[in-house]
Amino acid sequence: MCIRAYWATYGETHSNKWIERVIRDFYNHERILKEVTESNRDWGGYFVAVEKEKVVGAAGGGMIDEGVGELFVIYVDPARRNEGIGSKLLDSVTKQQKEEYGAKKQWVSVQKGNMKGIPFYESKGFKFQYENVPKEYPTYIKLRHSREI
């Protein structure tokens, strides 16, 4: 599901080589298994939305500083967008960060031009803060957004 959602989000804006590398590095079986079974303050684990034994969404975050959380990943099955699944997943990550780890602020990075993610985050109260231009991949600009929680 994460792979399908990644392709649906970035298939028109990122090279196939980039997408295949991200999938190989982040969405391989071993890494996902580890991230599903382990959690701590830095990585709170995955919250997974399941319907009829099928994964329809997943999200995860962690703490990046004292009182500061970050949403690291959120994906919804492309065929299930706009049903509130992403909102419930974000709420779960936020609740964990606030209640278990004492977060008062939350950050998220979103690729510039990601018109699926940006409106979602802004509708949840995230405000644009700055652009982060990676030296190794200067065409894939990350927009940093934050909100008080």
Describe the structure.
This is N-acetyltransferase domain-containing protein. Residues 1-149 form the N-acetyltransferase domain. Pfam families: Acetyltransf_1. This protein is α+β, with helices and mostly antiparallel strands. It has a single domain (2-148), classed as Gcn5-related N-acetyltransferase (GNAT) (Aminopeptidase, 3-Layer(aba) Sandwich). The chain has 5 helices and 6 strands; from the N terminus they run H-H-H-E-E-E-H-E-H-E-E. The protein has helices at 2-10, 16-26, 29-37, 85-101, 117-123; strands at residues 46-51, 54-65, 68-76, 105-111, 127-132, 142-148. Strands 1-2-3-4-6-5 form a 6-stranded mixed β-sheet. Strand 1 (46-51) and strand 2 (54-65) form a beta hairpin. The chain is globular and about 40 Å long. The two termini are 28 Å apart. The mean pLDDT is 91.
